[in-house]
Amino acid sequence: MAGCCSGSESKSQTDTISKLAKAALMIDDSLHVTESAAKKISSFIQSEGLDASELGLRVRVQGGGCSGFFYEMELDRPRESDRIFTAGESRVIVDAESLEYLAGSSIDYIESVQGSGFTISNPNVSHSCGCGNSFAV
Fold first, then answer.
1. What is the arithmetic mean of pLDDT over 39-66?
2. Domain 31-136 part of CATH 2.40.50.140
């Protein structure tokens, strides 16, 4: 008779472990930084005369705006609990809470006649406001 402590796993336990392992892998690869964004991050850090080995672009999801959330970005140093995503010599720093909202996202830097800046393509967004500055999940 196999009990909970017998060392054998049931099919449902194996399936659950497999799902958790896949989720952990998804988190590891949860943020894509384009080459254009990586170059711009490096450029910003260099233009400020700062050390790129110590800094990165921090991306946060904050509560507020018309739709409930908005992105905040700044050059910052990583903290112990942060996740760091590298692209070339650049780093994007994300806190654990924001990572929940950013999973699967792509960060890019675009330049056009209408303006330039970092853009986030986030598959978790259900809708955004008319001004484009806030979103809901």
1. 92
2. no
